[in-house]
UniProtKB/TrEMBL annotation:
This is PYRD2 protein. InterPro entries: FAD/NAD-bd_sf (IPR036188). PANTHER family: PHYTOENE DEHYDROGENASE, PYRIDINE NUCLEOTIDE-DISULFIDE OXIDOREDUCTASE DOMAIN-CONTAINING PROTEIN 2. SUPFAM superfamilies: FAD/NAD(P)-binding domain. It comes from the Eukaryota. Belongs to the carotenoid/retinoid oxidoreductase family.
Length: 356
């Protein structure tokens, strides 16, 4: 349990709770849930520019990362198509993957197919079901994809001024504006209570909030004097109590709760808001193809990691369909902006390609 680990090393409850947020981030779990310690480890492993456990902002926004990957691929001769939805994987005479069919009927032929879509989309929607073992299909159907995350993107006309560290007269970003700001994390009991509410189908009344202001480091993201604020919040259940829909009223009610919480730490925040974009778990699934809204394509729980991700006997990026590979977050080692699953899958696919 994460709580036991933190108790061994730290005395300060606010510090323990703040560290605990990385153990439950994106997970329908409490700091007291068995296995939560691994999720914390997952978020601090690796390094950035030589600094172990460090994270950073992508200049130009997260889309700039996709563009950088696209440019690198194009430089090697790749052809990139966007707004071209894939309908299903195409099979050859020997029942191996031989390309994909687009929704408009276009066939794109290839010797190998790599999918960074979720295992659910890849194997339950795109792959030919008759080619998949029943126990494999059952395993993919049973993957825990519950997500507690509602993402709120906010445009503001000035920097938030926090009671604990008020802004200076010139309104320039201070060091804390350039970091990840954790709210409602004064104690691990608050995180556990927020989780408990969601397990009963109710959005947290005092949600865990991770607030980032990327424009404080990258001014090009917003007009001069204005900023973009990214709110990663939880816990919000995918399915509300009583089967109530996540309609506009429910979305705005939850967002208002989040904004009220921020207002308590930074008076004037609500008055600074120019616009907001609210993405609940069903929205994240519909727009981005995240199963259940899960940012990791499936829970990072101990029963869904390593040799069982996404299924036993298929943790090596290959699938029951020869020539079809899984290279996204649903494969080992899981979610996070690190590219490990893609790199590993490419190496496996290249090795297989040599023997075609």
């Amino acid at each position: 349990l994460l709580g036991q680990i933190l108790d061994q090393w730290f005395e300060s409850e606010p510090l323990k709770a703040t560290l605990a947020t990385d153990a439950v981030i994106g997970a329908m779990a409490s700091p007291h849930t068995p296995g939560s310690g691994y999720v914390l480890l997952h978020h601090v492993m690796g390094e950035m520019e030589g600094r172990r456990g460090a994270w950073g902002y992508v200049a130009g926004g997260m889309g700039a990362l996709s563009q950088a990957i696209a440019r690198a691929a194009a430089a090697r001769g790749a052809h990139i198509f966007t707004e071209k939805a894939v309908c299903h994987v195409l099979l050859g005479r020997h029942r191996q993957a031989q390309g994909v069919v687009l929704q408009d009927g276009t066939e794109v032929r290839s010797k190998l197919v790599l999918s960074n879509a979720s295992p659910q989309i890849t194997f339950l929607e795109l792959a030919p079901q008759e080619e998949l073992p029943k126990d494999f299909v059952q395993r993919i159907q049973q993957v825990d994809t519950r997500s507690p995350v509602t993402k709120i993107n906010v445009a503001v006309d000035r920097l938030p001024s926090f009671l604990a560290a008020p802004n200076t007269r010139d309104g320039q970003p201070l060091p804390h504006h350039q970091c990840s700001i954790h709210l409602n994390c004064e104690g691990t009991h608050l995180l556990h209570h927020a989780f408990s509410e969601a397990t009963h189908g109710h959005p947290s009344s005092r949600p865990m909030i991770e607030l980032c202001i990327p424009s404080a480091l990258d001014p090009g993201l917003a007009p001069q004097g204005c900023h973009v604020v990214s709110l990663f919040t939880q816990y919000t259940p995918s399915v509300l109590a009583g089967g109530q829909p996540w309609d506009e009223q429910a979305r705005n009610a939850y967002a208002d709760t989040v904004f009220d919480c921020i207002e308590a730490y930074a008076p004037g925040f609500k008055a600074s808001v120019i616009g907001r974009d609210i993405l609940t778990p069903p929205d994240l699934e519909r727009i981005f193809g995240l199963p259940g809204g899960n940012i990791f394509h499936g829970a990072m729980s101990l029963d869904q990691l390593y040799f069982t991700r996404p299924a036993p006997s298929y943790s090596g990026y290959q699938s029951p369909v020869p020539g079809l590979y899984l290279c996204g977050s649903g494969a080992h080692p899981g979610g996070g902006v690190m590219g490990a699953a893609g790199r590993n899958a490419a190496q496996v696919a290249l090795e297989d390609f040599k023997h075609l």
